[in-house]
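Structure representation.

___
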Amino acid sequence: MSSLDALLAGFGNALQPVTLMWGFVGCFVGTLIGVLPGIGPALTIALLLPLTYHVPATSMFVMFAGIYYGAAYGGSTTSILIKTPGEASSMMTALEGNKMARRGRAGQALATAAIGSFVAGTIGTLALTFFAPMVVEAALAFGPAEYFSLMILSVVAVSAVLGNSMLRGLLALTVGALLGLVGIDLQTGQPRFTFGEAALLDGIEVTVAAVGIFAVGEALYLAWQGRESKAGEVMKLSGSLWMSKSDWGRSWKAWFRGAFYGFPIGAMPAGGAELPTLLSYYTEKKLSKHPEEFGHGAIEGVAGPEAANNAAAAGVLMPLLTLGIPTSATAAIMLSAFEGYGIQTGPQLFASQSSLVWTLIASLYIGNVILLVLNLPLVGLWVKLLKIPPPWLYAGIIVISTAGVYGAGNSVFNVGLLFAFGLIGYVMRRFDFPAAPLIVGLILAPMAEQSMRQALTISMGDWTTFATRPLSGTLLAIASLLLIAPPLWRMFGKR
């Protein structure tokens, strides 16, 4: 079946009333989360992970995709109206968007952000549709040795990109890997690190760890701060939301340039959305016919970064679906959801779960349309939600987290584990340790161990198999380069 035929079948599934409802819910919740600063799609998806025990996989991932795309849309609202980015990737939008709002052009800023997000999101989804199968075909050549090397590369890249300090990222990854080894050793049948606790024989559930670190940990951190954040003045909307002919002429090229920055960089193992938004902003500043407006409310400075942000969101799904590599905190949580359903991401996903994957991709097209319809009319509502006191918001999160984890397995032990991970999450937040590498380590360590043992069994215990196989050796070389290049650059760059 060709990609186009598979996509049409995916649209048939995605347009089913129940699946469409879950997609709409995801888009609505995602936009809401994007509007509320500091919450983020990763925390929201982590909070909803207990639903994986009760909701079919297709519906759940359609909703998660809606949340992910919706958060990218919604983040522009607070960036423009109160200069408070909901996500780090919205920081560049805040620079020009808030200045436009203060000049009485909040409507035009929100409009170019919404339309640019739609255009770039659609371009990114098209690229995901037609390039993902090519990546899969190349990845089918992977054996156990290549998978082990790929996992080494992914954890190194994720640790380097998700934290301010590589040391902190690797420490978080190591803790996650140790926790991932808890339970029965599949090779020998011996229990490891269970301390005699029968509930740990099956290992630590990723759902419990993710909800504890991202949701409970964030709530405890807010309690430690002991104060509400000062959001600043909310800009009132006035005038028409529609863009003038001049606004359209200055925005459309920025939308396309932002999309072509966002998708390829978002698809890289060390990509993300922050870098393409930064590159897009400075490109627009350099190419603009009105450079004097930058710093005072240039519409290109909103259009380009917002397009790059949403195209990067589609790009992040490429390595997650085709190679099983999470390149953002949100992708790491989605990977744990796949794990919860017993679905193995990677090259075999398009063959073993073809219907799920193509329904998910089709839902991204539909979600872009839903978000465009939702985003502008509901701006007034999103702004009012900014007035919810943060302590109330996070108290509700703790209650929902506890009820969800207990309801999933009727286990008091899991509730205790939830708050233990909450304390770990608080400590990591307090001392600026990235949380995503810990979750990645928890998920990938057992898989890496299994691939390593299989490769050694095939090679009769020859460790050089990881270096002598061309693809495996190349991946290890790239991982080594990611580790040693930054300090060498700093060392010789100063001379």
About this structure: Confidence is low (pLDDT under 50) at residues 228-235. The longest strand covers residues 183-184. Strands lie at 183-184, 191-192. The chain has 21 helices and two strands.
